[in-house]
Structure to design on (494 residues):
């Protein structure tokens, strides 16, 4: 159905609250706090829950189509294209910020962030871009959403509402018991672990299903919808303000796990049904544009803030903090708009064209095989732990070079195209052999340049041969398994 644009700008408001919480408000936060409670302006926990509710609602609006078959692969591809390019850019910006000691960071911590699984591993949940933990949660939602939606096709709305509230109540009870009894040493698990946030997303998704099945057909007066929206917003605000003092709750109990999500769902649904002048105002194109930039603002604001602060502190300016307080918020908004229109959108459009001849499962498996091949090559060649550790920087450079180069050459030389799985032996093996070989030669050249410049003490020639053989064998093996089980047969034989 047509996008409900009055919801779009609310996402921007929620992101600005997160920026305020992360020390990005400066003079603008101080000015607003003269009129609104400071705790309300910095309630990032409730804002994140609102974003999860809104995400579930929008997913149902777009994909709840009982009369159509749910294309799970296309859905996952669409979601990855929407989130991952900017996520990867934000990760690379953080790597640039930490460039002086990136080589000393544990490879598993880097890989957890590259593959967006850091929130599943509590010690790494806040590593690198500390705001990016929520992307792990979003990908968890998107992994489950197709199966939830296909199951929801056969369920009554009443049952879905009851079950979503039951899931939320169970999740809240479990979370609060664990928070009160097991907080010490488990903060990252209890705050960031993806399943604790599932209730918020499901409430939003069920709200979207109710809207599609019943809500949008109902004739409701603008005053009524606006009153429900305003009352829900008032109740959330009152609770946030009155609970601002952590001493009121056991051990500083957080709202992060979606305590207010039922109210937030009511707010979203009421605003979606609203036809008042408030919605007319929120449908203004400049406000919609700001809403569309919200993801870029969220995922990029931390590295942008760090790099900008460092640049100001290293400058000869008299008062860098004052300049930051005045300039950061407008700069990040302008930066977000430019990124959205001139980087994010073009990249997504380009990747959509590329992925028309790329198998996403093969691509993800190949990325995993790249990391495994390099790790095994060094482990098999250097069995002594001290010797292995001395080559950590070399291994990291190989991984990053392989991550980029091998993906590029695999795409360019067609080794990720599912059509080759049912071709002749030469069609099947040649693209994999060429992409693996060219990638290995370029990686060896890059590491040699690092060795020549004095970055590494040794140049381990045997590693490149071992890595080439391992990766070639595993890549061909994966494709052979796909071929045996007739993967993509329907797509390649049409």
């Amino acid at each position: 159905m047509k996008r409900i644009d009055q919801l779009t700008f609310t996402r921007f408001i929620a992101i600005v609250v997160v920026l305020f919480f992360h020390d990005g408000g400066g003079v603008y936060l101080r000015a607003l706090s003269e009129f609104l409670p400071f705790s309300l302006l910095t309630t990032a926990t409730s804002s994140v829950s609102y974003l999860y509710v809104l995400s579930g609602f929008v997913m149902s609006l777009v994909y709840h189509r009982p009369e159509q078959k749910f294309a799970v692969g296309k859905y996952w591809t669409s979601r990855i294209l929407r989130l991952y390019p900017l996520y990867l850019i934000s990760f690379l910006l953080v790597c640039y910020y930490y460039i002086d000691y990136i080589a000393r960071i544990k490879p598993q911590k880097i890989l957890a962030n590259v593959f967006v699984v850091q929130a599943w591993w509590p010690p790494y949940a806040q590593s690198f871009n500390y705001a990016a933990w929520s992307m792990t949660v979003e990908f968890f939602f998107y992994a489950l959403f197709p199966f939830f939606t296909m199951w929801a096709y056969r369920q009554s709305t009443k049952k879905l509402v009851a079950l979503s509230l039951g899931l939320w109540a169970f999740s809240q009870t479990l979370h609060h018991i664990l928070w009160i009894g097991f907080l010490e040493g488990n903060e990252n698990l209890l705050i960031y672990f993806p399943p604790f946030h599932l209730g918020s997303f499901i409430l939003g998704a069920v709200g979207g299903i109710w809207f599609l099945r019943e809500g949008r057909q109902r004739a409701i007066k603008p005053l009524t919808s606006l009153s429900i929206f305003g009352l829900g917003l008032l109740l959330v605000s009152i609770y946030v303000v009155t609970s601002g003092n952590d001493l009121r709750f056991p051990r500083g109990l957080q709202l992060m796990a979606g305590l207010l999500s039922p109210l937030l769902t009511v707010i979203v649904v009421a605003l979606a049904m609203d036809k008042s002048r408030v919605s007319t105002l929120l449908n203004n194109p400049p406000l919609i544009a700001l809403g569309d930039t919200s993801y870029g603002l969220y995922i990029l604001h931390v590295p942008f803030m760090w790099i900008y602060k460092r640049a100001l502190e290293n400058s000869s300016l008299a008062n860098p903090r004052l300049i930051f307080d005045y300039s950061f918020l407008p700069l990040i908004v302008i930066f977000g708009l430019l990124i959205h229109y001139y980087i994010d959108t073009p990249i997504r459009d380009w990747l959509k064209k590329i992925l028309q001849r790329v198998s996403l499962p093969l691509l993800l498996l190949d990325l995993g095989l790249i990391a495994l091949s390099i790790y095994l090559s060094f482990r098999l060649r250097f069995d002594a732990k001290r010797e292995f550790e001395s080559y950590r920087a070399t291994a990291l450079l190989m991984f990053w070079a392989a991550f980029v180069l091998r993906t590029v050459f695999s795409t360019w030389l067609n080794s990720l195209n599912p059509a080759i799985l049912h071709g002749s032996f030469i069609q099947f093996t040649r693209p994999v052999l060429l992409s693996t070989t060219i990638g290995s030669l370029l990686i060896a050249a890059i590491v040699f340049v690092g060795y020549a410049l004095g970055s590494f003490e040794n140049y381990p020639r045997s590693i490149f041969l071992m890595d080439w053989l391992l990766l070639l064998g595993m890549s061909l093996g994966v494709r052979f398994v796909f071929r045996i089980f007739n993967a993509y047969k329907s797509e390649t034989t049409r």
